[in-house]
Amino acid sequence: MSADQLRAQLDTLEAQYRALAERQLSLDLTRGKPGTEQVSLSDALDGILEGDYRASNGTDVRNYGGLDGLPEAKALFSKVMGVPESDIVIGGNSSLTLMYSVIDFALNVGLRGAESAWGNSDELKFLCPVPGYDRHFAICEHLGIEMIPVAMDANGPDMDEVERLVSSDPAIKGIWCVPRFSNPTGCVYSEETVERLARLGTIASDDFIVMYDNAYAVHTIDADAPELANIRDYSVKHGTESSVFQFGSTSKVTFAGAGVAFLSSSPANLAAFKQHLGFQSIGPDKVNQLRHVKLLQSPAGIAAHMEKHAALLRPRFAAVLATLENELGDTGMGEWLSPQGGYFISFNTRPGLAQTVVKLAADIGVALTPAGATYPYGNDPEDSNIRLAPSYPSLKDVQATAEAFVICVKLASIRQALA
Amino acid sequence: MSADQLRAQLDTLEAQYRALAERQLSLDLTRGKPGTEQVSLSDALDGILEGDYRASNGTDVRNYGGLDGLPEAKALFSKVMGVPESDIVIGGNSSLTLMYSVIDFALNVGLRGAESAWGNSDELKFLCPVPGYDRHFAICEHLGIEMIPVAMDANGPDMDEVERLVSSDPAIKGIWCVPRFSNPTGCVYSEETVERLARLGTIASDDFIVMYDNAYAVHTIDADAPELANIRDYSVKHGTESSVFQFGSTSKVTFAGAGVAFLSSSPANLAAFKQHLGFQSIGPDKVNQLRHVKLLQSPAGIAAHMEKHAALLRPRFAAVLATLENELGDTGMGEWLSPQGGYFISFNTRPGLAQTVVKLAADIGVALTPAGATYPYGNDPEDSNIRLAPSYPSLKDVQATAEAFVICVKLASIRQALA
C-alpha cells in the first residue's frame, strides 16, 4: 500500500478503535482455564462414591497412607501417559506442585544422594523452548536457575540447538517441554523430536532431566489431531528412563482446581522421589482419586469426556482463527498456527509490536496475556508474541475480543509502517 | 521382692508370655490414625454440595484460582486457631506439607528475602522437645538441620532451658511444639509456657520461628480437659507475631487423608509465604474446602462432631489406662500420664528397657511404635519411652494389646532386676 492508502486506512482504524472504546468493553482472553460449561461436565464427581470409600485393594481411602496413589488411579492414568502402571505416582490436585517438588528435590536434596544435588554447583541452567509456559519459567527464576531460550518450530524445540547446548555445557540441568498442543504454539512435537529428547540423557550431564509436561495429552479439539510419540518407549530404547520426568493431570479434564495430578519416571527416580515426598506428605487425597476413577473409568471414558470439552472449545477456537484469517490473512501483519488441541493460539505481531497491541487492547477494556509472558524473564527479544486463550469467555465474548484484537493489531502495524 | 519371689514371678510371666505366643496374635498399636468408625462420622462429605459449587463470594470452586483458601473456610478455621480471619491460609490435605513448605521456604528461599535464608549459615539447629513427633524430627534430619532435644514436663517444654539455649546460640532457628494433647505425652502446655514461647522472638535470633503444630486443638476426650492459652494474643502482646507459625488440620476431624489443613502467622510472613506458594501451586482444592464448611458449619458444629469422636476414643483410652493401673500401678515398672485428649499414651519403662519391651511384643505379634521414634535421630538416651496409640484397633484388640503389653513390661523389668 502507498503511504496515502495507509493513512486512509489508519483513519478508518482510529475511528473503529474509538468506537470500541466507547463501548466500554470488559473482555478477558488471558487465562488458559476451562469455561464454566466445561467444569460442569464433571459435576457428578461430588457424590459419585455413594458412600463406598473402599478402593479395589480394600484400602479405606478416607484414612492415612498410600503415598503414591491408588492402584486403580495408577492403572488409568499410566495409560494416559503411556507408561507402565508400576512407574507412576499419583499426587494431589496440581501437576505444577509435582514439577516444583521434582526441581526442588534435584536442586536441594539430590536425585541420587546429597552429592548429586544441583545446588552443589555454582552455575545452573535450564533450556526453555520459546514461546513457552510462564509458570515453568517462574519456577526456575524463583529457585535461581538461569534460563536459556531455545526456538520452537512446528516440530517442537530446535533439537540441533538443544543437542549442541546440552553436550557442550554441563551446567545445563534440564529442559522444559509441553510436547502435545504446546503452550502456547499448539504444536505437537514430532516423533523425531520426541526421540531426540529421550536421547538427550546420553549426551547431557549425568544429572540432566527432561521436564516433560504432558498437560494436554488427551486435549484434542480436532478429531484428526496428530498423536504424540511415546517418550517412554524411546527412553527405554536409549537407556535413559532416569533422564525423563513426565507429568500430567486432570485439571483440564475434570475440575481445574480439584483434579488429580501424576508423574512418571524411572523406578530408581520414583523410589528416591517417594522417599523425599514421605518427609512432606501423609499421602495425597485418595478420596478424590477414587472419585476420578469412578467418573472417567477407562481411556475410552476419558476420550468420550474430552469430546464434550472439544465441542465447547471448537467454536471458540474457530471464531478467533476465522477472524484472524479474514482480517489479517495475507496482510503480513501477523502469523499464527491453527492448533488442533490444547488451550492457546500463539500470535506473532510484526517485530516490536506485541507490547503496543496489548496496551491498545487494555486501553479499551480487552485484557490480553502480558506481552513477553511466554519468554524467560518476560523478555521477548522480538516483542512479537501474544498468547490468546479463548476457552473461558462465552463464545460471544470470544468473538468480540477477536474483533477488537485484530483492530488493535492493524492499528499498531499501520502506525509502525507510517512512523 | 526377694530374688526368690522375683524368680517365682518370672516363671509365671514366662508361662503367660508363652501362652500369648501360642495365640498367634496380630495386633497393632503403632499408628495415631482414626478408626474406621471415626472416619465414617464424616461420610456425608462426598455429595454434600448437592451440585452447588459456588462459594459465598461467588467463586466457582471447581476452577483455578484462590491461592489461600475460601473466605468461609478462613472464617471457620481461624476460630479453631484463635486468630483473625485475615491471618490464615487454607491449604491442601496435609498440615505436614504446610510445615515442610515453611521450613523449606525459610531454609532455601528466605522468609524475608534471599539474605535471610537459613541456608546461608553453616550451622543450623532446631529445638526438639522430647518425647515428640517423629515426623517433625524427620523434616529436620532430611533437610540437614541439627536437632537439640529439650525435656518435656506436664506443662510443656522446659522453658528455662529453651530460653537459655535460644538466647545464647543464634544457630538455633526454631522449636517444634504440639501444644495441646502433645504427641505423645498428651500434656497441654500451661498458660505460662505459651506466653514464654510467644516471647522467644524477643530473645532468639531474628529468624527464629516457633513451629506450633496445633494438631489436636479440638480433640478432647474428657469434657473437662484443659483449654490451651491463645498464643496469638501473647505474640501480639510481645510484638512477635512473625516468630510464630501455627498449624492445624481436619485430618482427625473428618477424613485423615482427605481433610483440609491451615496455617497462621503474621501478615508479613503470610504475604511472603503466599508469594512462594504461588510458584508451586495453582491453589488448593477449594471443592473440598467447601465440603468441609458445609459439614462442620461452625465451632459449635465442630465441637458436636468431636464429641462423637470422643465417644469412640474414650473406652479405648480407658482400657489401656485401666490395664496399666491395675497391672503396673505401684510396681515401679513404668510411668505414664492420663491424657485428656489427643491420640497417644506415653509410657516410660525403667531405663534401658523400651527396645526390649518392643521386641518382646513384636515376637508375639504385637506391633508397637519403635522404641526411640519419639526422639531426634531415633535416639532415646534412657531407652525408656514407648508411644501407645489406641485409636485405630477395635476395643477388643486394644484391650488384648494392653494385656500383652503389661506382660512384656513385667517380663523385661523382672529379667532386668534379676540380671
Automatic annotation (TrEMBL), chains A, B:
InterPro entries associated with the record: AspAT_Ic (IPR024551), PyrdxlP-dep_Trfase (IPR015424), PyrdxlP-dep_Trfase_major (IPR015421), PyrdxlP-dep_Trfase_small (IPR015422)
GO molecular function list: L-aspartate:2-oxoglutarate aminotransferase activity
UniProt keywords, alphabetically: Aminotransferase, Transferase
Pfam families in UniProt: Asp_aminotransf
Listed SUPFAM superfamilies: PLP-dependent transferases
Alphabetized Gene3D superfamilies for the sequence: Aspartate Aminotransferase, domain 1 (3.90.1150.10), Type I PLP-dependent aspartate aminotransferase-like (Major domain) (3.40.640.10)
Name of the protein in its database record: Aminotransferase
